[in-house]
Amino acid sequence: MKVLVAVKRVVDYNVKVRVKPDNSGVDLANVKMSMNPFCEIAVEEAVRLKEKGVASEIVVVSIGPTQAQEQLRTALALGADRAVLVESAEELNSLAVAKLLKAVVDKEQPQLVILGKQAIDSDNNQTGQMLAALTGYAQGTFASKVEINGDKANVTREIDGGLQTVALNLPAIVTTDLRLNEPRYASLPNIMKAKKKPLETLTPDALGVSTASTVKTIKVEAPAARGAGIKVKSVAELVEKLKTEAKVI
Amino acid sequence: MTILVIAENTNSALAPATLNTVAAAQKIGGDIHVLVAGQGVGAVAEAAAKIAGVAKVLVADNAAFAHQLPENVAPLVVELGNGYSHILAAATSNGKNILPRVAAQLDVDQISEIVSVESPDTFKRPIYAGNAIATVQSSAAVKVITVRATGFDAVAAEGGSAAIENVSAGGDAGKSAFVGEELAKSDRPELTAAKIVVSGGRGMQNGDNFKHLYTLADKLGAAVGASRAAVDAGFVPNDMQVGQTGKIVAPQLYIAVGISGAIQHLAGMKDSKVIVAINKDEEAPIFQVADYGLVADLFEAVPELEKLV
User: Fold this and answer.
1) Taking all residues of chain A, what is their mean pLDDT, rounded to a whole number?
2) B185 falls in which pLDDT band (50, 70, 90)?
């Protein structure tokens, strides 16, 4: 079966971001960018399905700026077969991304679409669920285990109280949680080979999708600073401070 | 303006996060209706009707809603929710699972994990693991929003007397089925609602050593959390994880034991009122946010702390 994987280019997870002085957003100039960690897990899961003989082709798609080609090449080096970039210079909301992905799903007709559960920049946790709604497919969100059984996918999900397993009719949408797998590293020969794999570029206009949004960001501020407190010398001093100063125990 | 709040429930009990969600709805202003979807939810509906400030409770009792499968619940919310000014749910795993599906079906953007209400159409929410706060404005006819429970003080669970109305909408969409679940059992308070949280990280070295934290927690009436490192190393189950990808907590007192304080962990606990860090590495980033820091070996400090409290 064909698997479609969506990946996002985001600021690297180790970077401590800074808010722009004019409060228009976060300063991304000259900041290290990477593939969103949850998307790496999605790519890894698709590659493992291919290695098991379950998946026959992996198409990786990104909605983003021209530079997102780097993240698509990374996915190709990890084992995806070909890539699609829907180029959009502006930052899109989840619904617009889901609509663009729906257009790609219509075109590619995958049996399984794997996305990360959330992007670590916008922290929305929406796109997979929205894509499921638009396509009418079942959704297995926050997946920590995926098993394909014929025309069904059994997905174990991380929920607040523990784990839940659901059976989804294929085609279906799955979003990955951190514990689904441990992504591999791309080897140098694979990185070289990935340069020759096909990468198609599309635009929202060509897909006939409007990216208009009902939500706009008015301003972005730094959170209230929390200063360092004091260091205590002993456990006894700590207990004394918690009892008399902070009054929390 | 009328606001629809989706009740977080386990069929037999109303989850406390619902009370925080109703608090957010009160900040928006207008009549508040609560939707209870599930199977055999009579007791939950009665509990919802008693919440202070709730005008009406809608009950959708159907086997198809028993496990909150989004393929079944989202169409129900869409059918009932069209016409409301706002649809709110707690940002729990159920809320996050169902609501974006509702938003897409209504063709509106969703606003995730709001921490404050500025006006009926303007909200604040954290982005970049809580390292920036965005103020967002929605022009959608129906504003679909998930609420971060720790951002709002719970309303009183008693004092209301809302009318209860049964609705017969919706059913099984036939796309998905519940297979089973494995819930972690614990006598300690629920992590996201606890007044005191004691969390352990990689410094605990193994799962067995978490018993030191359990003893301390039981003495304090606290819940026990963990960092991702502790979960990935298999010391404790994943539902104990605090952080950007785990649970968000904001207790009165958070005690971080053997946790370095990575950005992703801080995202889940830095709104705690008082933070205590116990770590033998005095350079650990956790000390930059801790109100009280103790540089010490946790295996000596924790048992001593347990004796003294």
Assistant:
1) 96
2) confident
Residue B176 lies in a domain: no
Contacts of B109 in chain A (CB under 8 A): 93-95, 213-215
Q: Give A132's contacts in chain B (Cβ within 8 Å).
A: 70-71, 101
**pLDDT per position as a tens digit, B5-54:** 999 999 999 999 999 999 999 999 999 999 999 999 999 999 999 999 99
Same domain, B53 and B137: yes
Please give the tally of structural domains in chain A.
1
Residues A14-65: tens digit of each pLDDT: 999 999 999 999 999 999 999 999 999 999 999 999 999 999 999 999 999 9
A170-217 pLDDT, tens digit per residue, is 999 999 999 999 999 999 999 999 999 999 999 999 999 999 999 999
Contact A160 B264 (CB under 8 A): no
Same domain (yes/no): B252, B298:
yes
Domain range enclosing B271: 196-308
CATH of the domain at B157: 3.40.50.620
Residues contributing to the annotated binding site of B for FAD = 202, 227-228, 241-245, 258-265, 279
Domain count, chain B: 2
Q: pTM to 2 decimals?
A: 0.95
**Domain check: are B15 and B156 in the same one?**
yes
Q: Do B71 and A230 touch (CB under 8 A)?
A: no
For the record, the structure tokens of A148 come out as: 């394909």
List CB contacts (< 8 A) between B128 and chain A. Answer: 11, 17, 26, 120-121, 123
